[in-house]
Amino acid sequence: VTGVQTCALPICMAYKILLVDDEKRACDYFGKTILKKTGEDYDYNVSKVYSGLSTVDMIALEKFDVVLLDIIMPGIDGLETLRRIRIIDKHVIVVMLTSVANELLAKVCLTKGANDYLTKPVNIDYLMSVALPVYCTLRGKEYFADNYNEIEAKS
Question: What is the pLDDT of residues 90-100, one digit of tens each?
């Protein structure tokens, strides 16, 4: 777990990422890699779950900034999990992950409410230097817009 900087602007907060993959070893490795590569500009707290149902439970209990969600899982798959996430939280950034590069599947994910679609193995350098900062900036803008009056009152 990383430290949390405090300030009135969302860029200084630790962004909460939820990793979802039924392949436990891959999910754990991915989480450790993200934490190792946390930089000065973005601070990430990573939680991991290994099923769609656990994901829905976590989203109901906690606010996350970004969900990295595997599509092909036993039980409820990533698309059904996405549908349930959107009922609970319309603003969380959801990125679908799959080892299947399929343009039609990507379009389906995006029309069902995903913000992005990445194929595995995910290029971790791209994820850390481009994708996660963009996702968190988008989430930070939504956070700022949703909490503008409260932030102004503290200033």
Answer: 989 999 998 88
